[in-house]
Design brief:
The complex is a heterodimer of chains A (340) and B (164).
Chain A (H helix, E strand, L loop, with lengths): L2 H39 L16 H11 L10 H18 L17 H22 L3 H32 L4 H9 L1 E4 L2 E4 L8 H14 L11 H4 L9 H26 L10 H27 L7 H29 L1
Antiparallel strand pairs in A: 1-2
Chain B lengths: L16 H14 L22 E4 L9 H5 L5 E10 L9 E12 L8 H5 L5 E4 L13 E2 L1 H6 L14
Antiparallel strand pairs in B: 1-4, 2-3, 3-5
The chains are: A mainly alpha (340), B alpha+beta (164).
């Protein structure tokens, strides 16, 4: 065996393990933020005792509790598919991080078709959800899985069209290219400043993307696939122990991933005005995570405010409002792009 | 639409205002002090007439069993026996008096309806606002005569009568 091939696989394995550990580790503070922010919005205190102060250790304690539980596989379940499904969900999320730039040089792979890759890979997560729903041999799981599939088809379109509008304005599909395009000075008469796309004509794309993102994540108010009061827990009904915690962490990791995407596409990504290029590798990660944190907070805010939609209302919103709006948006942005 | 079924100017609103109103409300509560009372460290003071626990005045009880019979949950257990009371003056008549042997209330069954308190013809039962008597074993929720009498000290004074 060639020695370089051997190193390649070891190298890759270590890289992947480190990446997975970091991505899933990022989910813990978000889980804590959700517990605490939602509690205060609901006039409660939330976690308080775990870890001594402010209940900071609550997500860790929850995780340890999940690990201690018995890993059940239903007798009627399609065991192989059932066991793989949570990891499909997690890996789809981790794969999103490949193209997200954290600085001019801090990007795992700057693909030319970055935006395309992003949309393609984030749909695979729903495949894992469908696998879980189908293999569980449980009516609630099946309904949840099918609802997730219906939701994906409905909301993938506006998501894609919103990204398309950004791609048209930037003239590139590479995420680094999109960030650099936002760093270009935006000229209005005598003034020329660097502005994120949110402020330079992409506000409608931004709204569509955020709504579709919340639906893609199947979070409240779009949580029909897991709707506790109707479907017990939807596709996660039969899961326990580590596999359940994988779904749990995967959900929050993909929340972070998509928030980072929003930060990159609409809020200027790692770009900070007046910071010279080499320094951006240092400031960039902080900037992009800070911007993503705002989006995460907004999603948590939405969760503790709005009630769940009905299944037909969900389809109605996507097909009758978001998609036509996104198409008109693309049309307008194309005209402006050509005219200017 | 207003209540009389016609549109008024007030009813026509800009779309999505409801969404932002909701967000403003939850946003406001985020920065408010939570309503939570951190129970073991701080305690709420119950109102004087709170239905916490039922206290028993054994002196007033005549073992009439009305409370036990009216109790919807059958959670009151009463046993008694008759005792002869010697006349105070010689030549008087010997009276028979009921003596209370057992008066237990099972708080594992009690639903705090207070019918026993209402129905007692001799004011032997009282509501006390005390509520901290949870136990590790269910059987310990059965309060006997002595324990029910102890609660009597926590019964607040009855409210003053209205001036006639």
């Amino acid at each position: 065996m060639d020695i370089t091939t051997g190193f390649f696989w070891v190298d890759t394995l270590i890289k992947v393990l480190v990446a997975v550990a970091i991505v899933l580790g990022l989910a813990l503070p978000v889980i804590y933020a959700e517990l605490k922010i939602m509690a205060h919005m609901q006039n409660r205190v939330g976690p308080y005792y775990a870890g001594g102060r402010f209940g900071w250790a609550q997500p860790i304690a929850d995780g340890l509790k999940f690990v201690q539980k018995e890993d059940l596989v239903p007798a009627e379940a399609d065991a192989t598919v059932f066991k793989i499904a949570p990891y499909v969900v997690v890996m789809a999320t981790v794969a999103v991080f490949v193209v997200i730039p954290f600085g001019p040089d801090l990007v795992a792979r700057d693909l030319d078709l970055g935006a395309f890759y992003l949309l393609a890979i984030s749909s695979i997560g729903t495949l894992g959800v469908l696998m879980a729903g189908w293999s569980s041999a449980n009516k609630y799981s099946l309904m949840g899985g099918l609802r997730a599939a219906a939701q994906l088809i409905a909301y993938e379109l506006p998501l894609m069209l919103a990204v398309l509008a950004v791609v048209i304005q930037a003239g590139t599909m590479s995420l680094t290219g999109i960030v650099e395009a936002q760093g270009e000075p935006f000229v209005v008469g005598p003034i020329s400043v660097s502005l994120p796309y949110l402020l330079t004509g992409q506000i409608i794309s931004f709204v569509i993307f955020v709504v579709a993102m919340v639906a893609e994540l199947s979070r409240i108010p779009f949580d029909m696939p897991i709707a506790e009061s109707e479907l017990t827990m939807g596709y996660v009904t039969e899961y326990s122990s580590v596999r359940f915690s994988m779904f749990f962490l995967g959900e929050y990791a993909s929340l972070i991933a998509l928030s980072l995407v929003v930060a990159t596409l609409f809020l200027g990504g790692y770009y900070v005005p007046l910071v010279p290029d080499p320094w951006l590798n240092l400031v960039g990660p902080l900037a992009v995570f800070g911007k993503a944190a705002v989006i995460v907070f907004f999603v948590l805010w939405i969760r503790s405010t709005f009630p769940r939609l009905r299944e037909d209302q969900l389809q109605d919103l996507a097909w009758r409002w978001l998609i036509p709006l996104a198409l008109v948006n693309i049309l307008v942005i194309s005209f402006v792009k050509v005219a200017v | 639409m207003s209540s009389n079924g016609t549109n008024t100017n007030k009813d026509i609103r800009f779309p999505f205002t409801g969404l932002f109103k909701g967000l403003a409300l939850t946003g406001k509560y985020l920065f408010k002090k939570p309503a939570t009372v951190m129970y073991p460290d701080e305690k709420e003071i119950p109102v004087p007439r709170a239905r916490g626990v039922i206290a028993l005045d054994t002196e007033a009880c005549t073992v009439c069993m009305l409370c036990a019979r009216e109790c919807p949950d059958w959670c009151i257990y009463i046993e008694g026996h008759k005792e002869e009371q010697q006349p105070e003056e010689p030549g008087g008549r010997v009276k028979v008096r009921a003596e209370l042997d057992r008066f237990d209330i099972d708080y594992g069954l009690c639903m705090y309806c207070g019918i026993c308190v209402d129905v007692c013809p001799f004011d032997a039962l009282f509501w006390s606002p005390e509520y901290e008597y949870s136990e590790h074993e269910v059987v310990d929720l059965l309060h006997d005569k002595a324990r029910l009498t102890d609660w009597l000290a926590t019964v607040p004074d009855p409210p003053a009568l209205e001036p006639s």
